[in-house]
Structure formats: C-alpha cells, structure tokens
From TrEMBL:
<dbReference type="InterPro" id="IPR048285">
    <property type="entry name" value="Integrin_alpha_Ig-like_2"/>
</dbReference>
<feature type="domain" description="Integrin alpha second immunoglobulin-like">
    <location>
        <begin position="3"/>
        <end position="75"/>
    </location>
</feature>
<dbReference type="GO" id="GO:0033627">
    <property type="term" value="P:cell adhesion mediated by integrin"/>
</dbReference>
<dbReference type="GO" id="GO:0007229">
    <property type="term" value="P:integrin-mediated signaling pathway"/>
</dbReference>
<dbReference type="GO" id="GO:0008305">
    <property type="term" value="C:integrin complex"/>
</dbReference>
<dbReference type="Pfam" id="PF20806">
    <property type="entry name" value="Integrin_A_Ig_3"/>
</dbReference>
<keyword id="KW-0325">Glycoprotein</keyword>
<feature type="domain" description="Integrin alpha third immunoglobulin-like">
    <location>
        <begin position="82"/>
        <end position="168"/>
    </location>
</feature>
<dbReference type="InterPro" id="IPR032695">
    <property type="entry name" value="Integrin_dom_sf"/>
</dbReference>
<keyword id="KW-0401">Integrin</keyword>
<dbReference type="GO" id="GO:0007160">
    <property type="term" value="P:cell-matrix adhesion"/>
</dbReference>
<dbReference type="Pfam" id="PF20805">
    <property type="entry name" value="Integrin_A_Ig_2"/>
</dbReference>
<protein>
    <submittedName>
        <fullName>ITA2B protein</fullName>
    </submittedName>
</protein>
<keyword id="KW-0472">Membrane</keyword>
<dbReference type="GO" id="GO:0001525">
    <property type="term" value="P:angiogenesis"/>
</dbReference>
<dbReference type="GO" id="GO:0005178">
    <property type="term" value="F:integrin binding"/>
</dbReference>
<dbReference type="GO" id="GO:0009897">
    <property type="term" value="C:external side of plasma membrane"/>
</dbReference>
Amino acid sequence: GQEKLSCNPRKENGSHVVLCELGNPMKAGARITVDMELSVSGLEDMGDAITFQLQLRSKNSPSPANASVTVTVPVEAQAVMELRGNSLPATTVLPVSWHRVEGSRRPEDHGIKVEHVYQLHNQGPSTVSGVTLLLAIPNQLGGRILLYLLELGTEGGMSCTNPPGLNAEQV
C-alpha cells in the first residue's frame, strides 16, 4: 500500500538534511520504493546541476553497508521574456521649413519631443536576475542629427548606463 512519509528537514554538520521515517518496525527482508519531490530554492547560482547524497540508515543495526549514493539532478531555469514598447506620439513629422536653433538650451528648439517607453516583462516560470537589455537607437542619419537623446529614466529597481552623447548640448 502507499503511505505518506513524515519527513523533517534539519541541519547536520553544516549540511541540509531531510530525515524521513520509512517504517518502525520494519520486517526483515522488506522492500520499499520511495518517490520524493523536493522543492529547492536559490538555484540561480548552482550551475547546471545539483547533487544530493542519499543514505539508508537503520537505528537497529548500524553497519558499513549503509553506504550513501550520490544522485545528480540537472537544473534548467526557464523564463520567457517579452519586450513591449511604444513612442508618444506614435508619428512625428517636422515641417519642411523647420531648422534647429544652434546653441539653444530650450528642448523645443531641437525638435519635437518624442518619448519612447519600453517595458520588459518576465512571464516565467523562473525568476530572472542580471538581465541586460541593449537598445540601439539611431540618433544620426547621413551625418545629421535624427534623434537628440535628452534623458533616460527607469522604474522598478532597474539600473541603466547612459549612452554616449546623452544630452551632449546640455539642453
């Protein structure tokens, strides 16, 4: 018959140990099969596998036959990342007669303000850390300024590195 095991986690000699009581008393020559499901956190820095040592011990007759078995389980983190973005306004057309005012510190003298908003979403199932998003924004076309990068802002605990040439004219 199938029974649910009673297991207790504890620390022993600096290791995390899970002790499960399989049967008391157990009949001589008994054979049992145990399926265990473990939930382990903090595997982000464990590499591509985690190793467990399993050992069957008897309280009644300790012997050298109680050797441990090493089990290596592959670890694979999966996360689906989605990048969404839009520009406000979605379309911008400069008048043909418009010219930028050299040396001005007023943003409107450098063109029409366009705000680009990007959202990076983790759809799981795993958590992610150390994600790098690299955005290449064309700021020149034919040697002339196409987009003047004024500022960069973030939300949600992210950090960004300012691109070279960000607000070069201190507008």
